Amino acid sequence: MVEPVPSSAAEDEPERAENGENAETRANRKRRNRKAKKQRSFWVELPILIVVALVLAFVFQQFFARVYTIPSASMESTLHGCTGCYGDKVLVDKITYDFTDPGPGDVVVFKGPAPWLENDVPTQRSDNPVVRFFQDIGSVFGLAPPDERDFVKRIIATGGQTVQCCDAQNRVVVDGKALNEPYIHWVDPDNPRQDEFPPVKVPQGDVWVMGDNRNDSCDSRCQGGGGLNGVVPVENIIGKARIIVLPPSRWGGVSDTNPQENAQPAALSLSAASWQQGVPLAVGAVGAWPAVALSRRVGSGVRRAVKRKR
């Protein structure tokens, strides 16, 4: 009997199945290889992430808010800063004044007007180009003092107002009213006196600024010789100081107490101009002369009448 010949189709099935499995495996391997090629290593992506973060931070600080280092003690104790010490780093809001006007009590950062720069020493930069580069980068991100001459002070009076110092209680006066300034810091608490200055009418579009450390601040009173040279154009204001971000021990908001809100009529002051101080004395002298003469005449008339009666 002739034995049946095995079907070639049956013999091919395992081979086709094996070949099919191999093809699928190869396809999966190729997909994994392509995916692996697309994924960058961490060390390749890290520099890209850093650059993107710096660009975003730069844009944010240029147009929305920026961190500034306080380089001086003129705003003690609201803001802490001194030469050679770890000063406060303050977040400054740069968009507030796009919608509102600067007002009394606002602590602002501004570019010094020309008269202010005459008496101020520019920030020192290293002669080493590499160090200077990192100083410039640090100033942008608030890690070093800014290269430009920026200042931080508190607005005391705005355009159209008249400011002077002081009344009988040694208070700054704006439009005839003595200011309420709870933020003032006295270097010598036993001698809370501040320097006097004559009335100054602040031009429209300018503000009058002063430091909270009233006895250790060269501000609108002395910059450029004081007076109208000491005012600051509103267009020079960079933004409003909002938050102390460093050091952690001083985290918190920056006070913006309006000193004019609870202002009271100024007490009669002895710090008026010298010719004004002499007015009462002159009036008294002029009035005293006829009074003395009249009293003499009355007295002599009384004496003569008494003699006639005798």
UniProtKB/TrEMBL annotation:
SUPFAM superfamilies: LexA/Signal peptidase
One Pfam entry name: Peptidase_S26
Species of the source: Amycolatopsis sacchari
Annotated localization: Cell membrane; Membrane
Active site: S74, K153
InterPro entries: LexA/Signal_pep-like_sf, Pept_S26A_signal_pept_1, Pept_S26A_signal_pept_1_CS, Pept_S26A_signal_pept_1_Ser-AS, Peptidase_S26
Biased amino acid composition, Basic and acidic residues: 16-27
PANTHER family: CHLOROPLAST PROCESSING PEPTIDASE (PTHR43390:SF1), SIGNAL PEPTIDASE I (PTHR43390)
Peptidase S26 domain boundaries: 45-245
GO cellular component: plasma membrane
GO BP field: signal peptide processing
EC number assigned by the record: 3.4.21.89
Protein name (database record): Signal peptidase I
Residue segments, region Disordered: 1-33
Transmembrane segments: 42-64
Membrane topology type: Single-pass type II membrane protein
Keywords: Hydrolase, Membrane, Protease, Transmembrane, Transmembrane helix
Catalytic activity: Cleavage of hydrophobic, N-terminal signal or leader sequences from secreted and periplasmic proteins
Main localization category: membrane
Top-level division of the source organism's lineage: Bacteria
Family named by the database record: Belongs to the peptidase S26 family.
Entry GO MF terms: serine-type endopeptidase activity; signal peptidase activity
